[in-house]
Specification:
Shape of chain B: globular
Radius of gyration of chain B: 21 Å
Number of helices of chain B: 14
Number of strands of chain B: 8
Shape of chain A: globular
Distance between the termini of chain B: 36 Å
Order of helices and strands of chain B: EEEHHHHHEEHHHHHHEEEHHH
CATH superfamily of chain B: Cytochrome-c3 Hydrogenase, chain B
Helix content of chain A: 25-40%
Order of helices and strands of chain A: HEEHEEEHHH
Largest sheet of chain A: 5 strands, mixed
Number of strands of chain A: 5
CATH architecture of chain B: Orthogonal Bundle
Distance between the termini of chain A: 42 Å
Largest sheet of chain B: 3 strands, antiparallel
CATH topology of chain A: Beta Polymerase, domain 2
CATH class of chain A: Alpha Beta
Largest interface: A-B, 44 and 47 residues
CATH topology of chain B: Cytochrome-c3 Hydrogenase, chain B
Strand order of the largest sheet of chain A: 1-2-5-4-3
CATH superfamily of chain A: NADH:ubiquinone oxidoreductase Nqo5 subunit
Helix content of chain B: 40-55%
Oligomer: heterodimer
CATH architecture of chain A: 2-Layer Sandwich
CATH class of chain B: Mainly Alpha
Number of helices of chain A: 5
Strand order of the largest sheet of chain B: 1-2-3
Number of domains of chain B: 1
Chain lengths: 186, 381
């Protein structure tokens, strides 16, 4: 993995290279070079198996992080190529010509995050949320609670507990209910 | 023919018929639909539709504490729920810097649970393939024997299907007294079933006529489509996460993943049948090699105050249907930033199935779909 990173680091101006395990590394690459690098990894470095395409919403930075995770069946290693996209009007070059299943990932990312992949087959077709007209549902600012409260109704007589408070009461019944909360829960 | 090479289908020409297979159909694996365009009995276009069981698990996990992700995640795969438990446990342990903290006994128990999950899945899958040709008796036997394995799950974990047995740092319990004896009794019954299954399925002329040379996956498609698991091994591509990327105690177990070369429905069923034999053997090996006593939990942070530093990882295992992976991202808070499941059906049920169905007979759709072991919940998450 180290020798691979040395070979491609300067070629593609890799940033924030992290070797998570002996057989798994992640690195950022500029958006313009990403598909070129994915193609190079497939054709010249033996990363012939496409494992996953995913996205993380870093809403506080105004960025989407796209991930192309590739696998080399010979060296039994995985390399994650990451790309930052602006959240507003996010567009990425399509990679559907490289592997036969990539159009499915791109179709899902268009629906779930609103990232467009011009030219990708059936990219505008609904995937799992048919007829959805709200904001893309995997974005961090899509509030599932608010959506559920506005769309559905509670069954009468049903009680709702905050899971953290409920567990705290179960585990530490003698502590007052107003015990200190996690920073994230406040 | 259009410029892009696809067929120009004009339904008003009366040459073609469009029908939907599913989402509610006994021959469809789970809540999934295939929209098919037919010319006579021949399929000229197929589109997979999922979403009938979308419950937004990945999004829900983002809003929950790490430990609360467990009961949510297991529902992502009904066929083998324990795989989700293990992947979340492994990802959170790795990102917390706690890899290696899981005691040996807990690792053996995790291995046992994953193989039991594989066994109960194969007890449905292998006879289920014959069921697509209306040979239903094997399915009835298999469901009975699967129930016996669920009995063992129940006494070990307290639950039959969704176990929540694997937790961060270890497992929830030890083997009950007499568990190994009762499991061995069940395995003897399954040994007998395996022999009967061979006669029932592989010596059956109808099964052979309907499965040999049908649903062939060319070897060059394996990487082109990202095909994994038995579907790849039946094409002669010997890849198995347990061997290639050993985890838990698999490196201490003696096994060699079976393969075939014909890559048709018959070959995939034959390989799964051999995997059934192998899984029974692996459970016996695990029970023989695991220590009698030992810690089952390592030191882990308080579940209510557990924060994981910013990081990301991809963890995977060999499920009964192939590579089952999870991309897990943390941001320093007490909840994950992103959890993305990669189930084998994501490729097998959409890009691959749509391609395989072209120019096949409508009568072969169910058998082809079941032979790929498609599982829609792991697509919709």
């Amino acid at each position: 993995m180290e020798s691979l990173i040395k070979r491609i680091e300067a070629k593609y101006n890799l940033q924030e290279v992290v070797a998570q395990r002996d057989n798994l590394a992640f690195a950022y690459v500029d958006k313009e070079f990403a598909i070129d690098m994915v193609t190079y990894m497939r054709d010249y470095e033996g990363y012939t198996h496409f494992t996953l395409m995913s996205c993380v919403d870093w809403i506080e930075d105004g960025k989407f992080q796209l991930l192309y995770l590739l696998n080399n069946p010979e060296t039994k290693t995985e390399f994650g190529i990451k790309v930052y996209l602006d959240r507003e009007g996010a567009v990425m070059q399509s990679a559907h010509h490289l592997w036969k299943q990539i159009w499915t990932y791109q179709r899902e990312l268009k629906e779930a995050f609103g990232i467009d992949f011009p030219g990708s087959p059936r990219v505008d077709e609904d995937f799992v949320v048919e007829g959805w007209d709200d904001m893309p549902h995997m974005r961090r600012d899509f509030d599932t609670n608010k959506y559920a409260e506005e769309t559905y109704f509670m069954r009468e007589g049903r009680k709702t507990y905050d899971p953290a408070t409920y567990m705290r009461q179960k585990l530490y019944p003698n502590q007052p209910v107003t015990a200190k909360k996690n920073k994230d829960e406040q | 023919m259009k410029d892009d090479g696809t067929l120009d289908i004009d339904l008003s020409s009366h040459k073609y018929t469009k029908i939907w297979l599913g989402p509610n159909h006994p021959g469809v694996t789970g809540n999934m639909a295939v929209e098919m365009t037919l010319n006579g009995d021949e399929i000229v276009d197929a589109k997979t539709h999922v979403g009938y069981l979308h419950r937004g698990f990945e999004k829900l996990i983002e809003r929950r504490l790490f430990v609360q992700g467990f009961p949510t995640s297991i529902r992502m795969c009904v066929a083998e729920p324990d795989t989700n438990e293990y992947l979340i446990a492994r990802a959170t342990e790795e990102l917390s810097g706690l890899t290696g903290q899981v005691p040996e006994m807990a690792e053996w128990l995790r291995t046992l649970v994953l193989e039991m999950a594989r066994l109960q899945g194969l007890l449905r899958a292998v006879p289920g393939q014959a069921g697509t040709f209306s040979l239903g008796i094997g399915v009835q036997w298999g469901v009975y024997l699967r129930d016996l394995i669920l009995d063992r799950f129940e006494e070990l974990t307290g639950a039959r299907v969704y176990h929540m047995f694997i937790i961060p740092g270890g497992v929830r319990g030890v083997l009950p007294r007499g568990f190994k004896r009762r499991m061995e009794e069940n395995l003897v019954d399954i040994d007998d079933f395996i022999v009967r299954l061979r006669k029932l399925i592989f010596h059956n002329s109808v099964f052979k006529a309907r499965s040999v040379g049908v649903g062939v996956i060319p070897k060059e498609w394996i990487d082109e489509f990202g095909i994994v698991g038995t579907n790849a091994r039946a094409a002669g591509v010997k890849r198995d996460i347990r061997k290639d990327y050993p985890y838990l105690r698999y490196s201490q177990l003696d096994f060699d993943p079976p393969t075939a070369t014909d890559s048709d429905i018959y070959s995939r069923t034959w390989v799964r049948w051999q995997e059934l034999i192998q899984t029974v053997d692996l459970i016996r090996q695990i029970m023989a090699k695991m220590p009698e006593k030992g810690d089952i939990r390592g030191d882990m942070p308080n579940a209510l105050h557990w924060k994981i530093p910013k990081g990301e990882t991809y963890v995977k295992l060999e499920s009964g249907r192939g590579e089952y992976g999870m991309y897990y991202v943390t941001d320093g808070t007490s909840k994950p930033r992103r959890v993305n499941l990669r189930g084998p059906s994501y490729t097998h049920a959409i890009a691959l199935l749509e391609k395989m169905l072209i120019n096949t007979n409508i009568a072969d759709v169910h058998a082809t779909m079941v032979s790929l072991q498609t599982c829609p919940p792991e697509i919709e998450r």
